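Running this now, will post back.
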Amino acid sequence: MNVCVITDNQFIYEQFLLILKDARYQSESFDFFSSPGNPLRQEPGCQIRPGQVDLKQATQDFFSRYELFLSLHCKQLFPPTLVKNHRCINVHPGFNPYNRGWYPQVFSILNKYPAGVTIHEIDEQLDHGPVILRRQVPVYSWDTSLDVYTRIQQMEVELLKEFLPVLLSGAYRTFQPETEGNVNLEKDFKKLCRLDPDQKLTWQEAIDFLRAMTFQGYRNAYFYDKEGNKVFVEIRLEKD
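Update: finished.
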């Protein structure tokens, strides 16, 4: 089987390569791609050279090379011509149907919807389609966005280790989520980033908001002071 793996996540890419060292996958062929402008680092000593592909510009000749397309944190929306004619599976870092789209763990902290991992067949909508399997992860009161995201990625790796043979063979059953759920776009997250210093919140609301926006290495939440200075804000939580 020829499999096209598209990912924009370096950690998941590296972990997937480790999974493929299992002897069960020696007869399968995997090609790896990322989105344009987001190159993956080639692993030392690894013969696999990841490429880049713009799915909107890809031709039918490219699509016809593969029996399965596997999305692992791919930032691109799969085009209709691909999902209608080829088997496409997405490993989504959210618990469908809740908080589909961008940064699901951020919105799970804010709106208290479940967080987790969903593996589903891809249709024309964002993070939508028949569910193959899903697992919920806990969200604790001392978690930041990074803490929840790390837990989600660990769950994704565990599920891929366990269920990759089933995903490749297609020997699975699907089910429809209970509702259509909700979708959050990148623009929704960016709206959250700018703080209004005059907004009135409870302490709980303020803590939840700041921990949802705290992801080490990224400057998310900010406000402008009276002098016009842009000031970034994050929170540190420590469980006793």
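The chain has a mean pLDDT of 95. More later if anyone needs it.
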